Amino acid sequence: MTPSRSRLAFLVSASTLTLTLGAAAALAGMDEARRYVDTEFQPSTLAKDDQLKEMEWFVNAAKPFQGMEINVVSETITTHEYESKTLAKAFSEITGIKVNHDVIQEGDVVEKIQTQMQSGKNIYDGWINDSDLVGTHFRYGQTVVLTDWMSGEGKDVTLPTLDVEDFIGRSFGTAPDGKLYQLPDQQFANLYWFRYDWFTRPDLKEKFKAKYGYDLGVPVNWSAYEDIAEFFTNDVKEVDGVRVYGHMDYGKKDPSLGWRFTDAWLSMAGNGDKGIPNGKPVDEWGIRMEGCRPVGSSVERGGDTNGPAAVYSVAKYVEWLRKYAPPQAAGMTFSESGPVPAQGNIAQQIFWYTAFTADMVKPGLPVVNQDGTPKWRMAPSPHGPYWQEGMKLGYQDAGSLTLLKSTPLERRKAAWLYLQFIVSKTVSLKKSHVGLTFIRESDIWDKSFTERAPKLGGLIEFYRSPARVQWTPTGVNVPDYPKLAQLWWQNIGDASSGAKTPQQAMDALAAAQDSVMERLERANVQGECGPKLNKRESAQFWFDKSKKDGNIAPQPKLSNEKPKGETVDYDTLIKSWPASPPKRS
To answer: Most buried residue, 13, 358, 434, 499, by most Cβ within 10 Å?
Structure first.
């Protein structure tokens, strides 16, 4: 049947109206983009014209999804709060896609993503999920492979100027198949923190040198850290009338105690093998992987979770907490202990997250000078006696952009637009200034951070240094992060409380991890890269095999676990680092 003229006229009119509304929305979006570029998205590594070109791409790419409402989630830190309150609003006003960006506790993020993966029910459209789960995502097959997505189904919504090569942590979200599963949205490291003003006092330097025979400075090894802890706690005792301590930590049996150890405490002591971003074949959790299969956690299966290096690391944690930290530290959680160094009575902290930087430089704090410069500095962490050159030296958190296959395609595309928006070059430098959690090489080397560096206590110098690559997240050896991570705080808590010796606690942890991997093997839910446990052998068998194969882990117990302390002058250290960014090939 041929449509009437009036019907054709109506269709043409409706089509014209749709085009007109679309054009009007695009114009409105660009007006909002100009406003944000002028008032909020500064500084940026892009010129304003280039920022507007990037925003124009978002406006056009978002047209099919205008009016849609999407849900995104991340853990609660300053960077994500800025995204939730400011960037989500900006994205909505520029693109017409409404974003609900929830910020919740890290453990809740893990629980919810686990629920969506298991049930297939869409809870969130986009996730900012730690790259610690990369081994989980790779093996369960529930996660969108970003490498394939950006060149396939998601190509039409992938930002041409995303510049993946500019992301400093892209290896963190890369699986054994060489493909990218997660892309960093924020990163922060655990570093050594110390009172620079105290360490440079001539009287204290003289007393320390007289007692220990070497200079007071940034400790290179754990022996020096222990000597400095002893010195400030029991020799100095007071500074300017205030009781001081040579160490700070926390010890309450609580889930946050687990992060304190899975966040690479064992690797700092020398657990695991050489390899960046994670040891091969044994990683810093002590899990051995052969090919892409986890094969054991306990020493008797070729792992290192209960080996001498791991036991030493836990023993030192317990000893230092009891001997050198404030008495109340043993009963504190992660969040309770975090603000303590800013109160002015802690000389050093071996395990300090750079996410606390913004809170540690606030005017008026006991640890900040009147001119706004900090009385403290951060530096690379010292290593234990089992550590060897070529091993990772600490942890770097990398909350990363993650998509799940269970999210409907159109919702996934809309979420991907938002996730790229919050890491785009238009906004990433400003976001880095707000949260001090860097993801792009171009941001780290921007002149705005060169100018701000003196007030950030070494943060910029560290991120510009070659040492940075030795700080990495949990890697691909861990086959199921949610199931395995919860075992750590329970078993380490027994060592912290004194209910078990460090050896007993690590034996129990290794056995528990092997048990979980054994269940995964029987269930065969992770395919050809799922766990397949080695048969049990004697510890000596694995010590000998490790040496024969040219590997490190597991290592036999050292005859001397406290070599002579070694320190380095902080100012000399940072002067030895490059002053210009690496060239990109």
So the answer is: 358
Name the strand (E) or helix (H) holding 456: none
Residue partners of 384: CB distance under 8 A and separation at least 6? 221, 222, 268, 269, 270, 309, 312, 313, 316
Cα 462 to Cα 473: distance, rounded to the nearest angstrom: 17
Residue 119 near residue 407, CB atoms below 8 Å: no
Reading the block at residue 150, the tokens are 């950006």
CB-count exposure of residue 370 (10 Å: 0-12, 13-18, 19+): exposed
Q: pLDDT tens, 436-476?
A: 999 999 999 999 999 999 999 999 999 999 899 999 999 99
- 4: pLDDT strictly greater than 60: no
Mean residue pLDDT of the chain comes to 94
Provide the pLDDT confidence category of residue 13 given band limits of 50, 70 and 90: low
CA distance 425 to 165: 13
Q: Are strands 69-75 and 126-130 parallel, antiparallel or unpaired?
A: parallel
CA–CA separation, 142 and 473 (whole Å): 21
> Is the sign of the CA dihedral 30, 32, 35, 40 positive or negative?
negative
Measured CA to CA, the distance from residue 10 to residue 409 in angstroms comes to 32
Angle between helices 48-61 and 409-421 (to 10 degrees): 170
